[in-house]
Design brief:
The complex is a heterodimer. Chain A is an alpha/beta fold. Helices cover about 35% and strands about 20% of the residues of chain A. Chain A has a 10-stranded mixed beta sheet, sandwiched between helices. In chain A, a hairpin with a 3-residue loop joins strand 9 and strand 10. In chain B, about 35% of the residues lie in helices and about 20% in strands. Chain B is globular, with a radius of gyration of 20 Å. Classes of the chains: A alpha/beta, B alpha/beta.
């Protein structure tokens, strides 16, 4: 069975939402937090909803609705979301009020919007969509598991198409706390402006990306989603290399069939060693590009990589300001991501006109 | 296309539970048989509402839970509760070679390590450099899943679901599908949630907490009582089931997830989401409504939920209606754990032939031609049990457990 990516939408630290050119002159990011560039939501959310929603809900719902509109689908066969941290802003608001107001005279709004399934629920509500609706919340696997669930549903024949995506947000509270865990560069990206793993720590990112997956091809498909594998705490570089090799074999292709590998380098010296090793041992003849210098590091960042891969496959080439100049048409992309060294994932995608 | 969902059955091989009515399966059964609810005044949770709102707390402190499980007493209460029930389930299954099987731990919860985060936040709000980091390190929903998976020796597959009060029903059904797709051989699946100030104040601000003991499906119901606990099933493939030297409890024969798409917190008056979920679960199981012997209701005790659920039942079923009851009248509403806790009780209903009473039911809802059960009944042949879990965001999930017919 083939799975087609019919449409996609992303809100990220780059200009990626709506009818904008594909990553032309990407913004050079500084500091230790790549804040998402929020679009005007006027054509997507009514102003009352927009005011009531927190940033993550707005970004998630807008990306989801925009993705559906592009696909020309009114109600998808399922809505599946991944979020590691959930709705942090509303969580922080309700927690603060509990403390400040000593548990009295609390308004329920922030509590209601703090639940992890709020984005998927809001999308279902706006569409009047009664179909399957699920939310995965497992750290660096949140998006990948949503994707796996989508692929299984399509295989089961229960749904002909699935709206799947991810969203995570950074708040003042969360950034202040995560900084204390030494996740980010002390002086922000001034330590490593080229994102080449020169120092310890990374930069925080956030965003939302959604995809409409369908078992039926359409004239405007971006790409085909061929395969997905996650592996948890592989333990060693050798195990990672073996898992990647086995995955490629399982997809009945060779490394030489892969035109581009998108890696999850995040500029943290310690975290990025594995990519150096892969570049030397496995992908020494393959073109590699990174993506987290564009969107920052967050548990569902791989959803941005999938958006990037879908756009590249539709265009057949890299955006001029990303990666190397290449002549060869890009038909097959492997995304390899690792998050906090524990969560590893592989996503294989190919151009729609690819012969099997 | 592969008819994946119909070809390979998934069996329940083990059960584990901890709730306000007992720290394991046999204690919970004893309480159910003796009409003993676990709802009381608040004992452990530090809150302004200590003497005002009854809750269904697990009757063990974090120190005691840590002593029994071997986990650190400073970790989150959801991890401690989860470990109690998951360990019991794994032991009960008789599987002693999880290392050589593809074993997954699929858990669910609603607010992660909020019990510790809310302690951290008191200091943190006063000074952003203050508050012990060890109290927020396990805030994320996935943390407790990993702590318990690690302690059980499960390293190959972990996942966490959060869909409000239907969370662990969705975890069970996702796990079953992973087995049917050949991704896993064994899955310990269910959920956990602990009482926190965050949820108590949240539900209190929504004005849906009963200040007395809850009365699900009663004409004069006034809201829900919050509870805490954890419940897990060990689900196995047919091949693993055949290799075990024990009888399987039952088959997970049906499941479905539908969305009410009506309101962020309220259920639709026509019970559309619950209706669609129950109907689709029956369809997958290949059963007719009349095949259901017992419905373990979502039955929170709020005006809104019970009316919507009963409406959906009335739309789907016809007289003679199946027996039904809400075990939340014993355990309180354990939120993200409720689907797991009630899946264990539904399995036991088939296994022990028990239909549980719905405590404190005086006047059945006048709008409907059926009533929840007032007393315990023992029936030898309970073949099919339907378990409902509905949550905020319109997330409605129904599971069906069926006796294995030889």
């Amino acid at each position: 069975m083939k799975i087609f990516i019919r449409s996609t939408a992303s809100i990220s630290a780059q200009e990626t939402f709506g009818a904008v050119p594909f990553l032309v002159n990407p913004v050079n990011k500084t500091g230790d937090y790549f804040k998402a560039i929020e679009p005007s939501y006027t054509n997507i959310l009514d102003p009352k909803l927009n005011r009531r929603m927190s940033r993550i809900i707005r970004m998630g719902v807008a990306a989801a609705i925009s993705c559906l509109r592009e696909a020309g689908i009114e109600k998808p066969g399922a809505i599946i979301t991944g979020t590691a941290y959930g709705c942090l802003e509303d969580t922080g608001i309700f927690l603060s009020r509990i403390i400040e107001q000593e548990e009295q005279a609390l308004s329920p709004t922030a509590f209601i919007q703090s639940t992890h399934n709020t984005i998927g629920a809001q999308v279902a509500l706006m569409l009047g969509c009664n179909e399957y609706n699920n939310t995965f919340v497992h750290k660096g696997f949140s998006f990948e598991t949503a994707l796996l669930d989508s692929m299984m549903l399509l295989q089961e024949g229960d749904a002909k198409n699935v709206l799947v995506g991810a969203a995570d947000e950074v708040t003042n509270f969360s950034h202040t706390i995560l900084k204390r865990f030494s996740l980010y560069k002390k002086d922000g990206l001034d330590d490593d402006p080229d994102f080449q793993s020169q120092s310890a720590g990374t930069a925080a990112g956030e965003g939302a990306a959604f995809f409409l997956l369908s078992v039926e091809p359409s004239a405007n498909d971006y790409a085909q989603l061929n395969g997905l594998l996650t592996f948890y705490k592989p333990g060693s570089a050798a195990a990672i290399i073996k898992n990647i090799g086995d995955f490629i074999l399982s997809q009945s292709i060779n490394i030489s069939d892969i035109d581009l590998v998108i890696t999850g380098r995040n500029s943290d010296r310690k975290h990025d060693c594995i990519y150096d090793e892969l570049e030397q041992k496995l992908f020494n003849n393959t073109m590699l590009i990174d993506y987290k210098y564009l969107c920052g590091e967050y548990p569902t960042a791989v959803s941005f990589a999938m958006w990037l891969a879908a756009k590249i496959l539709k265009a057949g080439q890299l955006p001029p300001d990303v990666g190397l100049n290449n002549i060869k048409k890009i038909k097959t992309i492997l995304i390899y991501n690792s998050y906090l060294d524990n969560y590893h994932s592989l996503i294989l995608m190919s151009a729609v006109n690819n012969p099997d | 296309m592969d008819p994946i969902k119909n070809t390979s059955p998934v069996f329940v091989a083990g059960l584990g539970i901890i709730s306000a009515i007992g720290n394991n399966v046999s204690e919970c059964c004893d309480s159910l048989e003796n009409y003993r609810a676990g709802i009381q005044d608040i004992n452990y949770l530090e809150t302004f509402y200590k003497d005002q709102l009854p809750v269904a707390e697990v009757k063990l402190s974090n120190e005691e839970l840590a002593g029994i499980t071997g986990l650190d007493k400073n970790i989150t209460r959801i991890a401690l509760l989860s470990m109690m029930a998951a360990k019991e389930a794994l032991h009960d299954s008789g599987i002693d070679n999880i290392e050589s099987l593809r074993t997954g731990f699929i858990s669910a919860n609603t607010v992660g390590g909020m019990d510790k985060t809310e302690q951290f936040f008191v200091d943190f709000l006063a000074d952003n450099n203050s508050g012990r980091l060890r109290d927020v390190i396990n805030h994320e929903c996935g943390s407790a899943t990993e702590i318990v998976a690690n302690a059980l020796g499960i390293h190959s597959y972990v996942s966490t679901i959060s869909t409000a009060c239907s969370s662990s029903a969705n975890a069970i059904f996702f796990a079953a599908r992973l087995i049917k797709h050949g991704i896993l051989d064994v899955a310990i699946a269910g959920g956990t949630d602990a009482l926190t100030k965050f949820t108590l104040n949240g539900f209190n601000s929504l004005m849906i907490l009963d200040k007395t003991y809850c009365k699900p499906f009663d004409e004069n119901r006034q809201g829900l009582n919050l509870g805490e606990g954890a419940g897990y099933l060990v689900l196995v493939s047919e091949r693993v089931a055949a290799s075990l030297k024990k009888e399987m409890y039952c088959e997970l024969s049906g499941y479905a997830n539908r969305n009410d798409a009506y309101h962020q917190t309220a259920s639709s008056p026509d019970g559309n989401g619950p209706f669609l979920a129950m109907k689709a679960a029956l369809q997958l199981a290949g059963l007719h409504p009349s095949d259901i012997d017992y419905i373990n209701l979502h039955g929170t005790g709020t005006q809104n939920n019970d009316f919507a659920e009963a409406t959906a039942i009335q739309r789907l079923f016809e007289a003679p209606y199946p027996s039904m009851s809400s075990t939340k009248s014993f355990t309180g509403h354990t939120l993200g754990a409720s689907g797991g806790v009630e899946a264990v009780l539904s399995t036991l209903s088939i296994n022990r032939g028990m239909i549980y009473p719905n405590l404190r039911l005086q006047n059945p809802m006048s709008e409907f031609p059926f009533s929840a059960e007032k007393s315990l009944s023992i029936k030898k042949d309970i073949k099919n049990v339907l378990s409902n879990s509905f949550g905020f965001g319109g997330n409605c999930t129904s599971l069906i457990f069926s006796k294995i017919i030889r």
